């Protein structure tokens, strides 16, 4: 944000000095940026980039109004729900609105606007509207209309899931008051083509919510191939072949990550976070959101001994390595990205690159994350499986030192396995560990009495789980 404030206003940057109310022309700028290449709008900043600030007593009202108006087809047609961020600069409140490029054509007050270096201008001539439509059609294939798609072609159980995800992320989200069809329409998954008047559900709708057989009929080449190549590098140690909707594909990929990649104890401030989850939720979402789905090449997620590497077909917006300290985020599938944001699976655009870059060294203990833009988009996250292997010896030694000598070797091996699994998957319950180790829950509870120095139970009896103690984690961190 500080980097942006040092720049002059341009095609993708707008300052508005209003302090007490939303600017009268704000939605003209939002509409224009949606129709062009997106951009950033700052409220409380004058034309020269000086921080004036928004009055503190109206900040939250303005944010709420912005969210509601961007979701209102009377104000922005079609709606494109935005999530403004409030920042404090020089003890003054500033509202930052990140506007992505959209795959649709938007209107405000029934007028289409486009963006140039000179600002926002009305687009009323049919040939100019056609130019915008052609530009978006050529770049954003997620907006292709499939007139034959009907509501019955979508997985009905997914609508329950998305409501639960939205509710847990934002209990006051305006979509929660809508029925299934209204959610599809207001999220842009149903659209009208301004060139030929065609209306219907889009490719994005099928990918996000379609039944598996529907997706395969529309894009039969669609698949995500997840592999582990640590021991058998010629083929694979494990493989997950995904051909389902993107909401469940995300969950399957994250389960694959949990099974095959270790976690690591990490404090951010005074709060423990899962480095594995924080990094790979961004990598997984990026693989899904920014893929060019009309390209027949598969998306891949491969875990090697020294790195995790993803690759997906891409409609590039530039070439070469992305510099995390100086880049402009550009969604390749704005509708899909927007939908994932509502579910709480993605933060604001560009945050994934920044978060992953910041935490990768903490996770791997070496190297930097790499993001390579081109006809395929490649992400490389360094790993350190040699340290992970050595941690097995650490666990074995710690269990042997801690547990009574009267405990037989078979039980010690099971205790070691429990420690390793809790290091990989913190929070497992007795029934989970019983299934993993092949013994009864009674045996697991007996095992826990032997591991009181190394394992602790956290949470309520019915919903809590087992975690490694700080003592055990310190042993692993110092291996």
TrEMBL record:
Residue stretches making up the HTH deoR-type domain: 411-463
Record's keyword terms, sorted: Transcription, Transcription regulation
Chain ranges passing through the membrane: none
Single annotated GO MF: DNA-binding transcription factor activity
Name of this protein: HTH domain-containing protein
Organism: Filimonas effusa
């Amino acid at each position: 944000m500080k980097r942006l404030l040092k720049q002059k206003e341009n095609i993708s940057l707008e300052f508005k000095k209003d302090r007490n109310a939303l600017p009268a022309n704000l939605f003209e700028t939002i509409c224009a940026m949606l129709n062009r290449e997106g951009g950033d709008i700052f409220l409380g900043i004058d034309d020269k980039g000086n921080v004036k600030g928004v009055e503190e007593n109206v900040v939250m009202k303005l944010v709420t109004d912005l969210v509601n108006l961007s979701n209102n087809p009377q104000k922005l047609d079609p709606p494109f729900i935005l999530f403004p961020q409030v920042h404090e600069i020089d003890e003054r409140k500033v509202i930052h609105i990140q506007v992505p490029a959209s795959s649709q054509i938007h209107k405000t007050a029934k007028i289409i606007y486009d963006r140039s270096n000179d600002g926002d201008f009305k687009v009323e001539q049919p040939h100019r509207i056609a130019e915008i439509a052609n530009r978006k059609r050529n770049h954003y294939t997620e907006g292709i209309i499939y007139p034959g798609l009907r509501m019955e072609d979508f997985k009905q159980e997914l609508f329950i899931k998305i409501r639960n995800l939205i509710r847990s992320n934002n209990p006051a989200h305006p979509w929660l008051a809508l029925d299934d069809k209204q959610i599809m329409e207001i999220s842009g998954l149903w659209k009208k083509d301004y060139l030929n008047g065609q209306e219907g559900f889009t490719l994005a709708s099928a990918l996000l919510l379609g039944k598996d057989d529907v997706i395969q009929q529309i894009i039969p080449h669609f698949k995500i191939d997840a592999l582990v190549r640590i021991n058998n590098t010629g083929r694979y140690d494990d493989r997950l072949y995904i051909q389902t909707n993107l909401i469940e594909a995300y969950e399957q990929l994250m389960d694959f990550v949990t099974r095959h990649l270790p976690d690591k104890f990490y404090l951010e401030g005074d709060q423990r976070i899962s480095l594995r989850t924080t990094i790979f939720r961004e990598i997984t979402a990026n693989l899904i959101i920014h893929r060019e789905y009309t390209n027949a090449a598969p998306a891949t997620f491969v875990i090697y001994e020294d790195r995790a590497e993803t690759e997906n077909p891409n409609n590039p917006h530039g070439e070469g390595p992305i510099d995390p300290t100086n880049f402009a985020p550009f969604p390749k599938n704005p509708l899909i990205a927007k939908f994932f944001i509502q579910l709480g699976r993605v933060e604001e655009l560009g945050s994934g690159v920044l978060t992953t870059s910041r935490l990768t060294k903490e996770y791997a203990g070496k190297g930097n994350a790499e993001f390579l833009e081109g006809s395929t988009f490649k992400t490389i996250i360094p790993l350190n499986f040699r340290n992970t292997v050595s941690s097995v010896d650490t666990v074995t030694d710690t269990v042997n030192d801690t547990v009574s000598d009267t405990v037989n070797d078979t039980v010690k091996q099971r205790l070691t396995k429990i420690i390793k699994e809790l290091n990989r998957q913190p929070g497992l319950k007795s029934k989970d560990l019983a299934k993993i180790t092949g013994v009864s829950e009674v045996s697991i509870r007996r095992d826990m009495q032997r591991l009181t120095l190394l394992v602790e139970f956290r949470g309520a009896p019915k919903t809590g789980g087992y975690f490694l103690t700080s003592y055990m984690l310190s042993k692993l961190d110092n291996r």
